[in-house]
Amino acid sequence: MPDGTVDAEREGEDEQRTEADGEAAAETGILSSLESSPFTVRSAEDLSEEELAEYREIFNLVDRDGGGSISNSELGDLMDTLGINASQEEIDLMINEIDQDSNGEIDFEEFVAVMSRRVKAAYTPDQVRNAFSFFAGDATPGLIKPECLERVLLDYCSDRVNKDQVQELLRQLETDSNGLFNYTEYISMMMS
What we know:
Layout: H1 3-28, E1 39-41, H2 49-62, E2 69-70, H3 72-81, H4 88-98, E3 106-107, H5 108-115, E4 117-119, H6 125-136, E5 143-144, H7 146-156, H8 163-171, E6 181-182, H9 183-191
Helix pairs in contact: 1-6, 2-5, 6-9, 7-8
Keywords: Calcium, Repeat
Protein name: Calmodulin
Region (Disordered): 1-43
């Protein structure tokens, strides 16, 4: 075979492998965090001050009116942002499941009880880290540009989220001074 033919075949194989690797990486990592998973429970006493502060920050983002609790309307907004199409009945069921004092809203202590559960995923932290790394491009290891994450979510999750939902999700990411998202910290928080 002429050398040009072999090179063309290798390039074709590389493109196929890259696309297949991308789909596999997306399925095993980034997408898994959008899907429901079984949980293991950690008690609030096991949480560090840093974790509690992070949960407070998340809680405050969801508690848009600053009332000190998450209403079913605010939970509905969160579900929309995450690309989860939940009916009002499903949102009410979620509230009822979490709401220990039966006041119809989720207070911070109830929120912490739910958030302190850890994802017991079918994927290891290394697999999820590799999935993020695959899409991170030339970013520093452990970091990803929000625009890369946006592209992945739109390319591989378009059946679950639309562009507005992805942009809302990206607006809520904490980025460093260079505008990069630390996916290593995110994976540690979700899967440790």
